[in-house]
Sequence to fold (174 residues):
Amino acid sequence: VSQSRYSAPGITCPVGPITQPVNGACVAISGDYTSLVGISDNCSPTTQMVIQQSPVVGTPFTASQVFTMTVQDLSGNSKSCSFTVTAIDTTGPMVNCASDTNLTITNPCNYTIPNFAGTHYANDNCTAVSSLTFNQTPAPGTPASGQTQVVITYQYAIGNTGTCVTTIHPIHLI
Fold:
């Protein structure tokens, strides 16, 4: 009898960043990560070896979660390795603003772009509204004439953005 049947199989876990997108409730649901693992054995064909994942597929998590993969060969020998999966938010904030903004002006030829901060609604599934950064293009105070589109953007720390566009319609007072 060969002693090789008493040898544990080989298993290699992935290195580097492994990420799982979050859902609308800001929760990641674990996937099947067994295909990310390399396995080998000196007796058992890899197609007949069993890989178990813990936590199991479908487990909810936030932030980071350690996953342990265990491989078992036909002789019952097993070996494990672990890696971390990080939950990431890939969806930008939802931004709502009026598609049209009527602006009363006294000069029929030109006006300045108003500050639109606080005139619309922004929300994000994972980031507090107070942590969102506001920007508008063109900037407040920029000279304009005629109809002008203003792009409203909200962004949060990891760079995801949400935008909406409002069109300024100048209304000249006579």
In short: DSSP finds no helices and 16 strands in the chain. The chain has a mean pLDDT of 91.
